[in-house]
Here is the input.
Amino acid sequence: MAHRIYFVIVAAGGGTRFGGDIPKQFRQLAGKPVLCHSIDAIKTFCGASEIDVRVILVLSPAGKDFWKSNGADSYPFVEIADGGVSRAESVANALAMVEAESDYAGSIIMVHDAARPMLSQELLGRLMRACSQGSQAVVPALAPTDSLMEKADICGAMPVDRSSFLAVQTPQAFHADTLISAYRNQKDNLARMTDEASVVFASTNSPIEYVDGDVRNIKITNPADLPLAEILLQQCSL
Ligand code: CTP
Ligand code: MG
Here is the structure.
């Protein structure tokens, strides 16, 4: 069992697809800001075990102002890192904080999208078990339910066999040394990496392990996703 878990919650995006004046991670959902749902889920999970937990929230300058007046008092244990231009650069800034600690070796790092408020205890349990059994890199994944096509070079698209593909969620969990050395190794390529598993794969060329994802663990991306999350929260306990 790892002696510590670092939870990195990336919340420095601008929410372009969602639109509006307030970025999606700060919108109200069932009585609290979207990003607070994940922090509460992590608190519950780690409160039930002996594990030492550190929560690092990655915020843009405007996000820091929001947090000061809408969260900092209720969550004094949360540490803040600076947002980067891309998601991977936001993660890199949080990893620099982990690396600055002399005793991070042997820890687990989980990276989670602030825009995924439906984080269940069962999913956290599946990821922790996989890490405890020796997985260096593990992600939650689901079989796609839509048919898939690959865009052709000029126009149109070609159907592909969807049974070969997985849709990947967060949290993504790693042994700290594996993730930190992959980020170091790929530091010049981070801007085009969409998740941590891509960084680790580019660095190690080893397959990434996966556990069952959760259909409720949606990423709030477009405006229709927020009312959907509200309904899901009313209908099921996480
Ligand atoms: N994120 C981040 N730093 C960035 C970009 C994204 O911390 N430079 C975070 C977002 O806040 C979000 C998560 O990464 O919690 C997943 O990204 P996404 O859903 O793409 O959010 P946005 O980038 O904010 O949205 P959009 O792509 O529509 O602009
Ligand atoms: Mg984005």
